[in-house]
Amino acid sequence: MIHPTVEAFIYFLFLLKAHLNFFVCFHYCLMGEETSVCLFFFLQSMAPTDPFDSSEDEMERLEEELKKWKKRLEAAEKAKADLLLCKSNAMEEYVKAEDGLIKLKNLQEKQHKEAVMSRDTHEINKEVAEMKLKFAHMEDTKDNYQDMNTQCVFGVTTKIPFRLDQNQVLLTFEDKEVAQRLIKIGKHTVNLDNKTADLRVMPFTLEMGIKFKLHVTISGKKISVSEVPELLIPGDWMRDKLELNFYKSEWGGGEVENVNYDKQSRTAVITFLRPGATNSFVRCTEYPFVVNGTWYRLPVSPDTNVKLENFQLYCGISKKTILLEGIKEMEDDEESVQDMIKIHFQKPNNNGGEIEKIKYASKGVTWVCFEEDT
């Protein structure tokens, strides 16, 4: 049986085991009634831990920690590079979008300008289409007899538009004195389908009009050629081919003095040596052109020079036309109302006279064009 003192000491050693890390060996034997206990202590581990072993472990731990932080740094740098790349791509997209927006704005402005220009051009073309062209006279050509040029003068006058509102009437008389007399009277009572209407007679101011003269000179030696074919040859070669082609008198040409060829516009001006050579092209609108075995039909026309002179703007009051207001809504059609008004103002006892034109706007707004009073 273990002695109580020994048992207590062993228990104490076990309590210190976690702190001292020792090894205990004991041996006991029973000899008769006495108990002998041999205790062998291995206290080597009770000495302090080797500091070098601790430093190596710490170094290994620090190296592992360093590797972890390196990996984290690499991941952070990669994330940063990705963010910078995304930012760069975003900036490129922003610049592209901004450029696209600027181009879109410029395109919209250009389209707006083109639309305005197209509208203005349409209005100009419309006015030009309404121009009144009169042949005035032939000019003396003695100074141009050597080239046998033809010169003539045309007088051009635009028609002036006038806005006619609903239930208004325009009356144009043959005699301006009739119109002026009716304007002085001011008011007229007119019988319209058994109903009386008090109409007001008013003069009206026309908008701006244009008139000018065109001096046209038709050359006796030059013709204009268009739609010259596009060939893969130098411009000098094309000029030579045009000269040789128009040199053939059997097709209406003749000896050529000069060829002015424009490759970009595919046009040319042929100058003949003989005055009056272009007379054969007056009725000829196409001329045969042979090159490399291929036949073409080139549009030709006499070369003309147009000069504008005596350009004038004018506006005023039409002395032969009156404006009628005060007509109420009518069940009759537009033509019937026009006939009733025309009959009333043609009668001399109503201070009227012969009427050239009448226009009644029964529905909505209409436009009427006027020429300059002569």
Account of the protein in words:
The chain is of the alpha+beta class and 374 residues long. The chain contains five helices and 16 strands. Among the domains are: 4-46, no CATH class; 165-208 and 315-370, no CATH class; 212-312, 2-Layer Sandwich (Alpha-Beta Plaits), CATH 3.30.70. The strands form four sheets. Strands 3, 4, 9, 10, 11, 12 and 13 form a seven-stranded antiparallel sheet that branches. The model is unreliable at 16-49 and 124-129 (pLDDT under 50).
Summary, kept brief:
The chain contains five helices and 16 strands. With 374 residues, the chain is an alpha+beta fold.
Question: Which helices and strands occur, and which strands form pairs?
Answer:
Elements: H1 4-20, E1 23-31, E2 34-42, H2 51-129, E3 132-138, E4 150-157, E5 160-164, E6 169-173, H3 176-185, E7 187-191, E8 196-202, E9 209-225, H4 235-246, E10 256-262, E11 267-272, E12 286-291, E13 294-314, E14 321-325, H5 334-346, E15 355-360, E16 366-370
Antiparallel strand pairs: 1-2, 3-4, 4-9, 5-16, 6-14, 6-15, 7-8, 8-14, 9-11, 9-13, 10-11, 12-13
Subcellular location: Cytoplasm; Nucleus; Secreted
Domain NID: 169-258, 268-357
Pfam families: NID (PF07292)
